[in-house]
Amino acid sequence: MKNTYPRPPMFLTLLIAALVMAGCGIVPVKKYYLLNYIPMALQNRLNETPYPSIIRLKDLSIEEAYARPQIVYRQNAYQLQFYFYQVWAVKPARMINDLIFKHLVAVDIARGIVRRYDGGEKPDFELSGTIEAIDEYDSDQVWFAHMALRFQLTRTSDGQTVYSRRFDKRKRVFKNDPQSVVKEMSSIMEFIMNQVVGDLDQVLDSANGQRGVQ
């Protein structure tokens, strides 16, 4: 005689199936991040008023490895990895160029800051450069935010480079999560732009003095 076992009620079977499906169906949610800070006025400027120059900000180019929405992280110098659910809300190049423009306008360093030349008044200088790195660096239990940018200022009248500087900054993150990394990246970006504005203050002061002597 074949053994038989009592079957559970149909509603219980359906309930168990629903719970199993719910547990298996949890999908991680993408999180979107932005670099952000409030530009502060440069202390001890050589000239308290805007310089009588127009600067065109030519969008900085970006290294191909970082020209993607996924936040990049690395554990050594030879391998890049990419978060899938931790992404930039805006393309990194656009995000950084927007921050640079916002900072230059906010500190009122020159008579005009423009991003495009549309046949109006010709800019006196062009600021350009390259975004070489923007990543999270994981070293054992210690995380770092890392950014590397290169800037160049060209005098448009003769194409002469009057300023060039490279920044490569790493800052420790004390809470190991992407949000904290982005926060420290924002701090690095603010530091770099404060340095750039200080450098421009000296370059434009010198250019203005030379112009006044002529």
Automatic annotation (TrEMBL):
InterPro entries: ABC_trans_aux. Residues 41-196 form the ABC-type transport auxiliary lipoprotein component domain. It comes from the Bacteria. This is ABC-type transport auxiliary lipoprotein component domain-containing protein. It comes from Candidatus Raymondbacteria bacterium RIFOXYD12_FULL_49_13.
